[in-house]
Amino acid sequence: MTRYTLWGIYAFMVEYLVQTPAQLAPVLAGARKSRKLTQKSAGTLVGLLPKTISGLESAPEKSSLASLFKLLSALELEMVLRPKNRRGGASQPGEW
């Protein structure tokens, strides 16, 4: 958990490890809802249709990277890529 200060108010942002599209979908939906945005209002911020937001939140593997990055922008999120931590060896079931 990371602590941020914004206008003198402390906020905590949880970092999520996402290894599959199935893990990404609820993170996107939860981030949108935590910001009190509807699919329509999130889409309006970055030029996406509500059905595109819905697709990203239900089956992100069928969506474009461009749409994903637009939604991340609307949600004020960023993507960080790093080497996998391979302690113990085997991948998780369903992991790409």
Question: What does this 3D model show about the protein?
Answer:
- With 96 residues, the protein is mainly α.
- It has a domain at 17-74: lambda repressor-like DNA-binding domains (434 Repressor (Amino-terminal Domain), Orthogonal Bundle), CATH 1.10.260.
- 43% of the residues lie in helices and 10% in strands.
- The chain has helices at residues 21-34, 39-46, 50-58, 65-74; strands at 2-6, 9-13.
- It has a two-stranded antiparallel sheet.
- Strand 1 and strand 2 (9-13) form a beta hairpin.
- The protein is globular, with a radius of gyration of 15 Å.
- The two termini are 25 Å apart.
How large is the share of residues in beta strands? 5-15%
What percentage of residues falls in helices of 4 or more residues? 40-55%
Q: Termini distance? A: 25 Å
Number of helices: 4
Q: Give a count of the beta strands, DSSP E runs of length 2 or more.
A: 2
Structural class: mainly alpha
Highest CATH level, the class of the domain at 17-74 = Mainly Alpha
Strand count, sense and barrel status of the largest sheet are: 2 strands, antiparallel
From the spread of the alpha carbons, the general shape counts as globular
Assign the CATH architecture of the domain at 17-74: Orthogonal Bundle
State Rg: 15 Å
Low-confidence stretches: none
**Roughly what is the average pLDDT, rounded to an integer?**
85
The CATH superfamily name of the domain at 17-74 is: lambda repressor-like DNA-binding domains
Q: Please write the string of helix (H) and strand (E) elements.
A: EEHHHH
The CATH topology of the domain at 17-74 is 434 Repressor (Amino-terminal Domain)
Question: If strands are numbered along the chain, what order do they take across the biggest sheet?
Answer: 1-2
